[in-house]
């Protein structure tokens, strides 16, 4: 749809360009493939604050029932289990970015629409900033202290029970580029962990996403190490299994996927951080993440009563000779935690042959 070139500060400009940003930004992100309102999406949307005031969202996660039940004529009364719930709060806030161009002569000198180009630049910036927040949260990148890069909430460090390391390494410090690279075995380990209900004693079960698949995001360096692994049962198997089984064509989680292995859709993203080695990033390492349903929450606010999530503003300066435009979004995202433990993520920390 062509955008009408209404004047600066025209109400129609705000509405049309706000809608255009929302329509274009979210599909350009990685996390939107996993985003939905129900609990079987990896990134669950909480939109309570689009209908009213407030800057904090509370979510409730429930624990699996424990005990073995009763059988035969055993008495059930008095042996009921108590449902256990944990709550998690996260904040939403406003984030903004703007572009400014200097003088009418700027538009005269070029053959393209400067305002349209500014929208494209803002679209690309927003897609990147939202994906940075998503991946920094999912990988537990606590070394990133700029909350503008972590979904406007502090990135929650991964607990020790939800981290696996490449090879025989017991921690980040022990990762070396000879034996501890990314392999398919690590994905197998993640899948085996969730399928064998290793966390059942504490009620922490990582459920698959809608469609029955798990997800895994790896850095290009980790993908490279997968591809160049010549050992038996490695990359060749992932090629044989690629995109087989299930509803592939109508499932958005396959859009842009790198490959599929062991019921896990694998994505490649350069935003995956280096591993945290006791307070500093370690070279030749990367953190990927394996995840299931309800791994992340994202909430949106409603700016000034407008239904559009993004808000477009324009200003003029110097007697209307200079122009600028800004795009803002009220939102927040945070990784799901359950009783101070990761709810649906497993961090994959490996050495890498490339940095």
Q: What this model shows, in words?
A:
With 355 residues, this protein is α+β, with helices and mostly antiparallel strands. The chain folds into 2 domains: 11-63 and 85-138 and 296-335, Major capsid protein gp5 fold (2-Layer Sandwich); 158-295 and 338-351, no CATH class. It has 6 helices and 18 strands. The longest helix is centred in the middle third of the chain and has 25 residues, at 114-138. The relative contact order is 0.22.
* Fraction of residues in helix: 10-25%
Give the helix/strand class.
Answer: alpha+beta
Largest sheet: 6 strands, mixed
Shape type: globular
How many angstroms does the end-to-end distance come to? 42 Å
Secondary-structure element series: HEEEEEHHEHEHHEEEEEEEEEEE
Cα-atom Rg, whole angstroms? 23 Å
Can you tell me the residue ranges where pLDDT is under 50 for at least 5 consecutive residues? Answer: 1-7
Strand content: 25-35%
User: Could you give the count of β-strands?
Assistant: 18
Mean residue pLDDT: 84
Number of helices: 6
List the helices and strands and how they pair.
Layout: H1 11-25, E1 35-36, E2 43-46, E3 56-62, E4 85-91, E5 93-101, H2 104-109, H3 114-138, E6 163-165, H4 184-195, E7 214-218, H5 220-227, H6 235-241, E8 259-261, E9 264-268, E10 275-276, E11 281-282, E12 285-291, E13 296-300, E14 310-317, E15 322-335, E16 337-338, E17 341-342, E18 345-351
Parallel strand pairs: 1-2, 2-13, 6-18, 7-9
Antiparallel strand pairs: 3-4, 5-15, 7-12, 8-9, 10-11, 12-18, 13-15, 14-15, 16-17
Helix pairs in contact: 1-3
């Amino acid at each position: 749809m062509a955008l009408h070139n209404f004047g600066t500060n025209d109400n129609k400009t705000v509405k049309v360009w706000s809608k255009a940003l929302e329509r274009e930004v979210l599909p350009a992100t990685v996390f939107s493939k996993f985003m939905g309102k129900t609990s079987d999406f990896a990134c669950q949307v909480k939109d309570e604050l689009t209908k009213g005031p407030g800057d904090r969202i509370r979510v409730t996660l429930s624990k699996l029932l424990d005990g073995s039940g009763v059988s035969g004529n055993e008495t059930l009364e008095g042996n009921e289990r108590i449902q256990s719930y944990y709550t998690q709060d996260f904040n939403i806030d406003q984030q903004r970015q703007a572009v400014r161009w200097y003088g009418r002569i700027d538009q005269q000198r070029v053959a393209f629409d400067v305002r349209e180009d500014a929208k494209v630049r803002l679209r690309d910036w927003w897609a990147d900033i939202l994906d940075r927040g998503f991946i920094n949260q999912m990988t537990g990148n606590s070394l990133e202290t700029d909350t503008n890069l972590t979904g406007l909430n502090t990135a929650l460090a991964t607990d020790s029970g939800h981290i696996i390391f490449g090879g025989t390494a017991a921690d980040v410090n022990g990762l070396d580029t000879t034996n501890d690279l990314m392999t398919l075995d690590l994905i197998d380990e993640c899948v085996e962990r969730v399928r064998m209900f290793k966390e059942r004693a504490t009620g922490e079960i990582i459920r698959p996403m809608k469609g029955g698949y798990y997800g895994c995001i790896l850095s290009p360096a980790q993908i490279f190490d997968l591809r160049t692994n010549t050992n038996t049962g490695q990359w060749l198997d992932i090629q044989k299994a690629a995109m087989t089984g299930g509803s592939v064509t109508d499932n958005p989680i396959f859009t842009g996927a790198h490959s599929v292995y062991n019921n896990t859709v694998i994505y490649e993203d350069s935003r995956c951080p280096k591993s945290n080695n006791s307070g500093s990033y370690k070279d030749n390492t990367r953190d990927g993440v394996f995840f299931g349903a309800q791994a992340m929450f994202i909430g949106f606010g409603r700016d000034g009563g407008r239904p559009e999530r993004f808000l477009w503003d324009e200003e003029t300066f110097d007697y209307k000779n200079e122009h600028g435009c800004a795009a803002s979004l009220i939102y927040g995202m945070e990784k799901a935690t359950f009783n101070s433990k990761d709810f649906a993520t497993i961090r994959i920390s490996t050495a890498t042959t490339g940095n």
